[in-house]
Each structure stands twice: as C-alpha cells, then as structure tokens.
C-alpha cells in the first residue's frame, strides 16, 4: 500500500503533442488583432478618404473665392496678361490638378483655356468645382463673363490617403502586437506558471508526501479560480491521507485479529488433539487401572497371534484372577476393592514392562498378559514372578482362605500352531488352566 500511486504523472500528455495554452492564447489574440486591425484600417482609411475629399473641396473653394472676382474682372477688362497670370496661379496651387476657363464673349465663340498639372489625363473621384464668373462693371450691374472649373489633384489625394493609411496600419499593428504581448505576459505570469507548478506537484505526489500541501507562489488579494483549485487539491490530499491512514490502521487491526485467530485456532487444535488423545486413551484403556481394556485387547491379540504364526515364534498367555475378591469387597468395601485392583495392575505393569508384552483387564477382577517370544515354561516362571511381586506388596486380605494377603491364581497357556488358528483358542486354554489353578487351591500357577 506504501507504493507510489502515480499512474500518469508526466507533465507531457501521453498521446498528443504538447501545446502551451499561453502560445495558443497568443496566436488567437494575434489572429483577432489582425482581423480587428484590418477592419479598423478599412474604416479609418475610409474616414481619411472622406476627410481628404472634404479638405480638398475646402481648398478648392478657397482658391475659387480668392480668384473668382479678379478673374472675372480680368476677363471683363480684356487684361490678357493678368488673366494668364491668375489662371497659372490657380493651376499651380497645391490641391489643383486641372483648371478649365471658359471665356464667354457676346457674339463670339467661347474661348477655353485649360491647364493640366499632368500630361496624362487624371481619372478618379477628385472633387470638381464649377463656378460662373460674374463681372460687376458698375454698382448693381452683373455680367456673366465665363465659367471656371477647378478639379482637385488626384495624385495628391491618393498621396495624402496613402500617408494616412500607412500611419493607421503601423499604429494599429503596434497596438495589436503590444496587446498580444501583454496578454501573453499576463497569462504566463498569472496562469501558465501556476498550472505547470500544480501539474508538477500532482506528478510528485506519493502516499508519504500527501501532507505536503500545494502552495502557489503568488500574492493574491482576492480569491480566484487558481485559489479555488489550490484549496481543492489540498482538500483532496487531506481526504486521501485520512483514507490511507484509516486503511492502514484497519489492515493492522485485521492482521492482529488474524494472528489472534491463528493462535486461537492453534490452541483449540492442541486442545482437540489432547482431547482426542485422551479419548483414544479412554477408549483403549481401563479407566480404573489404566491397563488396556477388553476392546483394545481384542484388537491387539489377533495381531500378536498372527505375528507368532507367521514368524513361527512362541507365544504365551497368562490369565490372572484375584482370589476371594468377593470376600475382599465384602470385608473392605467396594472402594478399597478398586484400590486393590489398582495395586494389582501396578504390579502387573512392573513385572511385564518389556516391549511387546501386553497386560489387559478383561473382566472385573480378571487380567490377561500376552507374552510374545516366550514358551509355556518361561511363562510359568514369569507368572511366579508376578505372584512373588504381589506377595511382596503384602496387601492385607483377612478374608482369604489361602493367605493373609491378596493373591492371584494364574492359568498359563502357550501357542500350539498345529491345533490353534485363533487367539481365543489360546485364551480358552489359559482359562482352563486358571480353572485348574483355582481348583488346585488358588494362589498358584497352572499350565
Ligand atoms: N471392587 C470391585 N469389585 C469388583 C469389580 N469387578 C468385579 N468385582 C467383584 O469381584 C467379585 C468376583 O467374585 P467371584 O467371581 O465370585 O469370585 P471370587 O470371590 O474372587 O472367588 P474366586 O474367584 O473363586 O476366588 C464380585 O463380587 C464382583 O462384584 C470392580 O471393578 N471393583
């Protein structure tokens, strides 16, 4: 769980090429500024054109105002020299491109004087001024003496327009570029730098660094989108950290309870094993004496019998019965009788403790001893050792008619492979021997 949980942490997008937001914003701003500049240039050029036309009109009107009367006077007075001088002055005036003077004389064909600034005829939309020349030979009299047409200078009009258009284009372009630069700088300082910082911070996040909060390097007087993003990223980190802590403590608790559970299971298994063992012991052993019980004895006797037959080894059985035990019980009580049986069992265990020798309690006060690899004679000797050993214990038996102490009668039988094919036959033989021992006076061994 402590591992790095970063999956896509690179600042570079995985599939698409990286393209800065600032650059895209600048390109969009530039495009917009260019279109805006184009529109502005068109509009302002149109205004300049209109102004130039109006200005040229005014200039032509002024020239006309200056020369109108003097020209009319010179025509009336037939002052050719003055007329030529004046018409030349009009034609060479800055805004004038062409001058046409139509001199009207009664009874004569009109005389036309035309002066062009350029050899090639101008065509365009220059302003044209038509005036009638009126002479006043005396007060109150008016005579029309000619017509004056003044055309503006087309080239001058365009030159003025180009000059202004150039300055408009340059100022608009500079304005657009400055605006784009300003937008880019502002966007870069206010947004891009912090977005990159946030991306780096997120990319370096790991479970152990969740407590390190995102801190944008900027001075803000009021909240904005970046402040919101910063606080939300930090809140997300806090939540994630709390969640991981909870998960870690849950895992610890789980591991602890798993260990406890394992210990409990282990303890229960050991208890069960012990219970099974004691159950097995109980089911196989006599509760009073601890010797093998009848059931266990029945399981083992055939095994020993088959082994002796297979290996052709001797096998002997002792059948032991406590003498006058009814009287013992009657004399000392049943509890003491039990105690006596325990003592006899202890004696059996001490005498027949070698491996392979089996002692069992098969009846109330009846015991059987199975002795492998021993023939009848050796078994009788072993039976005598048992009697001696019991006698040495000197368990009082006042009711016995053969001894002041507890005694046993023992019947001995040995395996005869020729005539026996079941252990019970051997046991029956030992039982018969016991019967004989009882009849021989008890406290003895009979084969
Ligand atoms: N205290 C006690 N007595 C038992 C137990 N099992 C059997 N007995 C008693 O053992 C006695 C056996 O008596 P009998 O079979 O008549 O034989 P006996 O009195 O020993 O006489 P002989 O065998 O002929 O010497 C009975 O009185 C049973 O009650 C036991 O587990 N505890």
UniProtKB/TrEMBL annotation:
NCBIfam families xrefs: GGDEF (TIGR00254)
InterPro entries linked to this entry: Diguanylate_Cyclase (IPR050469), GGDEF_dom (IPR000160), HAMP_dom (IPR003660), Nucleotide_cyclase (IPR029787), Rev_trsase/Diguanyl_cyclase (IPR043128)
Annotated catalysed reactions: 2 GTP = 3',3'-c-di-GMP + 2 diphosphate
Keywords associated with the record: Membrane, Transmembrane, Transmembrane helix
GO BP term (any one): negative regulation of bacterial-type flagellum-dependent cell motility
Keyword Membrane: yes
Keyword Membrane: yes
Organism of provenance: Pseudomonas bijieensis
Catalytic EC class: transferase
Signal peptide: none
Cofactor(s) demanded: Mg(2+)
An annotated Gene Ontology molecular function: diguanylate cyclase activity
Any one cellular-component term (Gene Ontology): plasma membrane
Residues covered by the GGDEF domain: 313-447
Enzyme Commission (EC) number: 2.7.7.65
The protein's name: diguanylate cyclase
Compartment(s): Cell inner membrane
Boundaries of every HAMP domain copy: 189-245
TM segment ranges: 25-49
């Amino acid at each position: 769980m402590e591992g790095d949980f970063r999956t896509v942490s690179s600042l570079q997008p995985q599939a698409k090429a990286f393209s800065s937001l600032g650059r895209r914003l600048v390109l969009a701003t530039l495009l917009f500024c260019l279109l805006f500049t184009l529109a502005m240039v068109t509009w302002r050029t149109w205004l300049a054109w209109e102004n130039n036309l109006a200005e040229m009109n005014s200039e032509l009107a002024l020239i006309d105002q200056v020369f109108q009367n003097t020209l009319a006077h010179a025509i009336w007075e037939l002052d050719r020299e003055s007329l030529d001088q004046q018409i030349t002055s009009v034609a060479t005036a800055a805004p004038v491109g062409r001058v046409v003077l139509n001199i009207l004389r009664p009874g004569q064909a009109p005389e036309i004087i035309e002066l062009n600034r350029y050899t090639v005829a101008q065509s365009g939309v220059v302003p044209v001024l038509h005036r009638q020349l009126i002479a006043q030979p005396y007060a109150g009299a008016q005579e029309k003496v000619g017509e004056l047409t003044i055309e503006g200078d087309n080239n001058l009009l365009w030159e003025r327009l180009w000059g202004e258009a150039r300055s408009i284009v340059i100022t608009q372009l500079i304005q657009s570029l400055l605006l784009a630069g300003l937008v880019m700088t502002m966007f870069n300082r206010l947004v891009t730098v912090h977005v990159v910082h946030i991306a780096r911070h997120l990319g370096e996040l790991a479970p152990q660094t969740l407590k390190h909060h995102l801190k944008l390097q900027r001075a803000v007087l009021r909240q904005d989108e970046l402040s919101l993003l910063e606080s939300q990223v930090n809140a997300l980190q806090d939540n994630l950290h709390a969640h991981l802590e909870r998960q870690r403590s849950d895992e610890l608790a789980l591991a602890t309870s798993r260990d406890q559970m394992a210990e409990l299971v282990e303890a229960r298994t050991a208890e069960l094993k012990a219970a099974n063992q004691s159950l097995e012991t109980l089911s196989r052993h006599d509760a009073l004496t601890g010797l093998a019980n009848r059931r266990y004895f029945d399981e083992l006797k055939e095994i020993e019998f088959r082994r002796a037959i297979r290996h052709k080894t001797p096998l002997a059985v002792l059948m032991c019965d406590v003498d006058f035990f009814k009287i013992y019980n009657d004399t000392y009580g049943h509890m003491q009788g039990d105690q006596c049986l325990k003592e006899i069992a202890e004696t059996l265990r001490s005498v027949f403790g070698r491996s392979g020798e089996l002692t069992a309690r098969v009846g109330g006060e009846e015991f059987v001893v199975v002795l492998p690899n021993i023939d009848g004679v050796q078994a009788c000797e072993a039976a005598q050792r048992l009697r001696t050993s019991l006698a040495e214990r000197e368990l009082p038996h006042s009711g016995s008619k053969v001894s002041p102490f507890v005694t046993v009668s023992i019947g001995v039988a040995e395996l005869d492979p020729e005539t026996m094919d079941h252990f019970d036959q051997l046991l029956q033989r030992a039982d018969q021997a016991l019967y004989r021992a009882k009849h021989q006076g008890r406290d003895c061994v009979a084969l």
